[in-house]
Amino acid sequence: MKRILVVKVTSLGDIVEALPVVADIRRAFPGVKVDWAADESFVDIVRWNTGIDRVLYAPLRRFKKTRRWSDFKAILASIVELRAERYDVIIDIHGVYKSAIIAWLARSKRCFGYLAKDLGERGAAFAYNGRFGPRPACDAWTGMRVSAGEALGYTVDTPPEFNMRIPRLGDALPAPESPTAVIFHATSKDEKKWPVAHWGELCLALQARGLRIELPWGSDIERATAVEIAALVPGAVVLPQLTVRQVAQRIEEAALVVGTDTGFVHLSHALVRPTVMIFVTTSSEHTGVRAPGRSISIGDGFHVPPVKVALDAVDQVYPPRGNTTAGDASASAA
C-alpha cells in the first residue's frame, strides 16, 4: 500500500473528528502516503494534520452560491490535480453526491463507500465498487474510523489521534495574561443555541473561579449576541473578528473551552483542551465529544441543559482551583 485518498469534504467539526483516520491508516501501513479531498473552506484544518501528504480542494461551496467562472475554472484545475496520482484505495467517509463525484473522478481500481442505507444521499452509491460494513453501534466519529478500518483490513483499538499543529504567524493575538475561558455561543441553526441568560450565569460562575472570559464571533449577528452576553458579565472580552487560524491559536491558549455543538468546540477537543460541549436539539451521544477528565458533552437533544448541569460538566474537565469551590461557583450562578 503506497498511497490512499480519504474523501471528507465538509464541514469544520466533521473534518476535525475524521482526522484520526489518518493516524489509523499510517499505523496500519507504515510509510503509506495519505491524501485528503475537502472543500476549499476547510483546507487549513486538513493541512494542520501532520500525517497528510497532499490536500486536494476546490471552491465547491462558493461555486454553489456564486456560479462564477473563476470558481468553475478552479474546480476544473482541482480535477486535473486530483487525477495526477493513482491511488491504491479511495475511501469516501462522507457519503453524499459531491464526495462520491470526487471519489469517482480520482484514479483507483478500489473505491469504498457506505451501504445505501447509511449514505447521506443514496444516489452517491454509483461511485463505489466496495462497501463498508453496516454502520456500527457507536458515535459518528468512531464509526468513520471503524469503516475505514473495514475497508483497509485493520482493527481500530486505540484512542483517536488528531495530530494537529497550528501554525504561528505574525498575526496571532497577544497571549492572554491570565487563565481564559473561550466561549463559543454561536451555532449554525437558531434551535441549537443556548439561551443568552444561561451563558451569562455560566460566565459569571467561571469568573468566580478566576477565569477571564473571551467571546469570539464570526458574523454581525454573532457579534451582537457576544455583546449581549458581555453586558451580563462585567470584564468579559468580545474579541475582534478572527481568522480560523487565529481562533485555533486562541483555543490552544485557553484554560477552558465551552460551547454549543459547533466546529470550533470539536477543534478544541482535538487540540486537547478542557472542553464542554452543550447540545440543545441534537444528539450528544451521536456527535458529541468525550475524553475522560478532558472533554464532555451534555444535553439529551430534547431539553435545554440547565446552567447547573454545565457547571457540573466544567468541574469534570476543569476542577475548581485555589480558594474557589464548586459550591461557590454554583452559588454565584444561582
From TrEMBL:
Assigned keywords, A-Z: Cell inner membrane, Cell membrane, Glycosyltransferase, Lipopolysaccharide biosynthesis, Membrane, Transferase
SUPFAM superfamilies, per database record: UDP-Glycosyltransferase/glycogen phosphorylase
EC number(s) from the headed UniProt entry: 2.4.99.23
The protein, known as: Lipopolysaccharide heptosyltransferase 1
Catalytic reactions on record: an alpha-Kdo-(2->4)-alpha-Kdo-(2->6)-lipid A + ADP-L-glycero-beta-D-manno-heptose = an L-alpha-D-Hep-(1->5)-[alpha-Kdo-(2->4)]-alpha-Kdo-(2->6)-lipid A + ADP + H(+)
Family statement drawn from the similarity comment of this UniProt entry: Belongs to the glycosyltransferase 9 family.
Domain of life: Bacteria
Topology in the lipid bilayer: Peripheral membrane protein
Matches recorded under InterPro entries: Glyco_trans_9, LipoPS_heptosylTferase-I, LPS_LOS_Heptosyltrfase
Source species: Paraburkholderia denitrificans
Pfam families attached to this UniProt entry: Glyco_transf_9
NCBIfam families, A to Z: heptsyl_trn_I (TIGR02193)
Pathway participation: Bacterial outer membrane biogenesis; LPS core biosynthesis
Location(s) in or outside the cell: Cell inner membrane
